[in-house]
């Protein structure tokens, strides 16, 4: 819970957190090393200096560290675990549903456990997915279309097998589809950051009740993402990666936020720290203090009120996941949209 | 019999040539982005160009295009006989370095990984985005300098009188020559991007058009520019991220 200077309480849902293992013992190959190095540079590049960890700590952090950073210091009430498997790079996976489930079992009210699927696993994966959904009461998945698998360098949401998995999500009531784009590279000769396949899937499954949360707001293709999101009411923007720019390049952050608010409005944006890429405390502190500079407002007539900030920081995610929001936080029980 | 006289390769000329190569996704010079790691000129006219990128995972198609262009422009420098391009610290370092230096096509470098056509379409797509972004910058500059929307959409190429003047852009507006302070670099860059997408170069052609060369109605200009604005936001945002990651990765400072 974040408390404003006036004593008002703001309910915080961190829409995207990890509990990963990138330690050398879990690295299979040079791709694993490249993966950790890349993540670490994101962390170092965009975090305030006092929040930068040593590489060793970043590769594998403790449960107590995470609990402190998210809940004791980071204002978070509920955090959503988004798995990323990467079994081709890491022996036990980078961050799997099973690993997250251990933590979830210890702190059932603090975490939402999301799972994942991969259309390239075909029938076997479908059965395994159903099993996981029932075992863990899963309401959302994180899809990582850039994942390498054998010789394959990625997949698209428009692949025929992906459709079977979406159908399964509908059957099982897994309504929140978080899609991460990039660093996708496949097919090699196309713009693989293209979000067109999200558009197809969102249109096709709108009436069936699936919501598509595009992580990182389609960066680096904001222009395409905004266009899709404006037309598809079941498309949301996940603000992981976008938010930390509030420190490193506040003007660009303002420019992107203005665009997001213009096209999606305050009801379809979700705060995420992408922990441990970044830590929620400083992002939330800066976001609460944030106001649009005049030159941005001159080009885009947008507003970002305290009520809007509350939605982005927690209430929108609470609706998607049907979370109970304490009434003191200025909202009653969240109802599904 | 070798008839050609020996020409010493100038490092300055090589760097100037490489300075014209842009990252397709960011539309900035790879030298200014810091992507040029080093250049080594050997006595026999062999040049080694070492490139580096912000991450291990940077898209191989863009990396390939930059390496390809770097080789092509360096080969044109007087005295250069052979160019070896090395891409370091990348998931496809070996494939790209070996393939480009041997002059291989994209589908030869990455057999079985392309879908249909070559990378030409990808390049054209990003040339179009760069065109939109640079046009938005120029058009907004013109509007801020006091031109009306009617005047902006009515401009012809021949109305651009001089873009090389350091004090500003010389432009003919409604029959009168005007000097617009600070606009020359914007106009130069835009005209270069406009040439790249292959629009009509005649003096009577319109300056500000959609990517197909179609005129824009004055009352639609504002809405039209929003599209270019989104492309600019993407490109600028990505450039900030890429420069930052490169600085972090190689511990370099400045350039931003």
Keyword list:
heterodimer; A: 337 residues; three-stranded parallel β-sheet; 13 helices; 41% helix; B: alpha+beta; hpI Integrase, Chain A
Layout of helices and strands:
The complex is a heterodimer of chains A (337) and B (256).
Chain A: E1 2-3, E2 9-10, E3 13-17, H1 30-46, H2 55-59, H3 63-72, E4 78-81, H4 97-106, E5 111-113, H5 122-136, E6 140-144, H6 160-172, E7 176-180, H7 196-204, E8 211-215, H8 222-231, E9 235-238, H9 245-248, H10 250-263, E10 269-270, H11 280-289, H12 294-299, H13 306-320
Parallel strand pairs in A: 3-4, 4-5, 6-7, 7-8, 8-9, 9-10
Antiparallel strand pairs in A: 1-2
Chain B: H1 11-18, E1 22-23, E2 28-29, E3 36-41, E4 46-52, H2 60-75, E5 82-88, H3 93-101, H4 106-109, H5 120-144, H6 149-154, E6 160-162, E7 169-173, E8 176-180, H7 184-196, H8 221-250
Parallel strand pairs in B: 4-5
Antiparallel strand pairs in B: 1-2, 3-4, 6-7, 7-8
Characterise the protein shown here:
The complex is a heterodimer of chains A (337) and B (256). Chain A is of the alpha/beta class and 337 residues long. In chain A, 41% of the residues lie in helices and 11% in strands. In chain A, strand 4 (78-81), helix 4 (97-106) and strand 5 form a beta-alpha-beta unit. With 256 residues, chain B is α+β, with helices and mostly antiparallel strands. Chain B contains eight helices and eight strands, in the order αββββαβααααβββαα. Chain B has helices at 11-18, 60-75, 93-101, 106-109, 120-144, 149-154, 184-196, 221-250, and strands spanning 22-23, 28-29, 36-41, 46-52, 82-88, 160-162, 169-173, 176-180. In chain B, strands 3-4-5 form a three-stranded mixed sheet. A three-stranded antiparallel sheet of chain B has the order 6-7-8. Chain B has a two-stranded antiparallel ribbon with strand order 1-2. The mean pLDDT of chain B is 92. The chains are: A alpha/beta (337), B alpha+beta (256). The interface between A and B is large, with 36 and 41 residues.
């Amino acid at each position: 819970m974040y408390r404003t200077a006036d004593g008002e309480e703001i309910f915080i849902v961190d829409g995207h957190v990890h509990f990963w293992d990138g330690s050398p013992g879990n690295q299979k190959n040079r791709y694993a090393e490249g993966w950790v190095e890349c993540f670490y540079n994101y962390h170092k590049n965009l975090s305030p200096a006092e929040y930068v960890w040593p590489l060793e700590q970043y590769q594998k952090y403790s449960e107590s560290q995470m609990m402190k950073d998210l809940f004791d210091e980071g204002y978070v009430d509920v955090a959503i675990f988004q798995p990323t498997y990467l079994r081709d790079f890491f022996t036990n996976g980078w961050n799997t549903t099973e690993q997250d489930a251990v933590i979830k079992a210890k702190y059932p009210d603090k975490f939402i456990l999301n799972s994942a699927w991969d259309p390239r696993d075909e029938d076997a994966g479908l059965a395994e997915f159903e099993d996981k959904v029932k075992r863990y009461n899963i309401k959302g998945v994180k899809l990582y279309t850039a994942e390498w698998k054998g010789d394959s360098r990625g997949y698209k949401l428009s692949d025929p097998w992906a459709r079977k998995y979406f159908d399964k999500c509908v059957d099982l009531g897994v309504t929140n589809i978080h899609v991460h784009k990039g660093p996708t590279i496949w097919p090699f000769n196309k713009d693989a950051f293209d979000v067109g396949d999200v558009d197809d899937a969102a249109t096709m499954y709108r009436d069936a009740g699936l919501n598509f949360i595009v992580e990182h707001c389609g960066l680096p293709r904001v222009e395409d993402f905004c266009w899709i999101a404006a037309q598809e009411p079941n498309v949301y923007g996940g603000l992981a990666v976008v938010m930390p720019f509030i420190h490193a390049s506040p003007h660009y952050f303002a420019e992107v936020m203005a665009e997001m608010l213009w096209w999606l409005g305050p009801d379809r944006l979700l705060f995420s720290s992408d922990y441990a890429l970044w830590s929620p405390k400083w992002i939330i502190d800066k976001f609460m203090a944030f106001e649009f500079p005049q030159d941005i407002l001159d080009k885009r007539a947008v507003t970002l009120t305290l009520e809007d900030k509350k939605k982005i920081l927690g209430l929108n995610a609470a609706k998607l996941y049907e979370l109970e929001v304490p009434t003191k936080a200025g909202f009653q029980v969240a109802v599904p949209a | 019999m070798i008839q050609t006289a020996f020409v010493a390769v100038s490092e300055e000329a090589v760097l100037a040539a490489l300075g014209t190569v842009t990252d397709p996704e960011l539309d900035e010079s790879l030298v200014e982005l810091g992507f040029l790691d080093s250049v080594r000129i050997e006595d026999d006219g062999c040049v080694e160009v070492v490139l580096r990128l912000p991450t291990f995972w940077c898209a191989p198609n863009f990396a390939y295009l930059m390496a390809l262009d770097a080789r092509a422009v360096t080969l044109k420098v007087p005295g250069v006989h052979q160019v070896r391009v090395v891409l370091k610290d990348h998931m496809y370092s070996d494939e790209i370095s070996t393939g480009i230096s041997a002059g291989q096509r994209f589908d030869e470098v990455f057999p079985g990984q392309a879908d249909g056509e070559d990378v030409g379409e990808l390049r054209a797509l990003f040339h179009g985005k760069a065109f939109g972004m640079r046009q938005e910058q120029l058009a907004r500059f013109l509007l801020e300098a006091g031109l009306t929307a009617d005047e902006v959409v009515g401009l012809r190429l021949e109305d651009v009188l001089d873009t090389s003047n350091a004090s500003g852009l010389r432009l003919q507006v409604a029959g009168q020559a005007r000097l617009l302070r600070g606009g020359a670099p914007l106009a130069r860059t835009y005209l270069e991007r406009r040439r790249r997408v292959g629009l009509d170069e005649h003096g009577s052609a319109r300056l500000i058009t959609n990517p197909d060369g179609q005129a824009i109605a004055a009352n639609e200009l504002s809405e039209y520019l929003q599209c270019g604005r989104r492309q600019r936001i993407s490109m600028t945002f990505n450039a900030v991220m890429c420069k930052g990651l490169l600085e972090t990765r190689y511990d370099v400072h400045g350039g931003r």
